[in-house]
Write a structure and sequence with these properties.
Layout lengths: L1 E2 L7 H4 L2 E9 L2 H20 L3 E9 L3 E8 L2 H8 L2 H11 L5 E10 L4 E2 L32
Antiparallel strand pairs: 1-6, 2-4, 2-5, 3-4
């Protein structure tokens, strides 16, 4: 059901900003060299004010990425300025010896969303919305058919 109150939802639902990044590494040995600095960087990130949650993903053959959530865009950007993050990014982007490709995208959450059950702050109810959220050209969305 629609809401703006995510106070009972998991940390990633309360986040206002999301980072997704991916790096294609040059070879498997690079991943071993990366590990100590990456562990320090993640430790710093988890301790920072504004950090909510993160996960790591893998895509064959050599792409490793992170999806991270922060309370707001400023908290996310403060993390990007940390010593361990800067060191790691310089190591990755200093030519193509360690990495051959990479990307970063930043997203900001809309205040509106949906919650149900135990994660619903208003009343804990489970239920469906009556109407879909309107698309850009619509003033109201169509009814949800059951």
């Amino acid at each position: 059901m629609r809401t703006r109150d995510f106070s009972r939802a998991p940390a990633q639902a309360r986040a206002g900003a999301m980072f997704i990044g991916g790096t294609r590494y040059a070879n498997p040995l690079v991943l071993l060299r990366l590990a100590p600095d990456w562990i320090r960087m993640v430790r710093d990130m988890r301790r920072m004010s504004g950090y909510c949650w993160h996960t790591v993903y893998w895509q064959f053959p050599l792409t490793l990425g992170t999806i991270a959530f922060f309370t707001d865009r400023d908290a996310l950007l403060r993390f990007a300025r940390t010593r361990h993050h800067r060191k790691l990014m310089m190591w990755l982007t200093g030519g193509n010896r360690n990495a051959t490709a990479g990307f970063i995208r930043l997203y900001t959450a809309s205040p509106d969303g949906y919650s149900n059950g135990a994660w619903r702050a208003e009343d804990g109810a489970m239920g469906h919305i009556e109407r879909f959220t309107p698309l850009g050209a619509e003033t109201t969305g169509p009814a949800v058919r059951r």
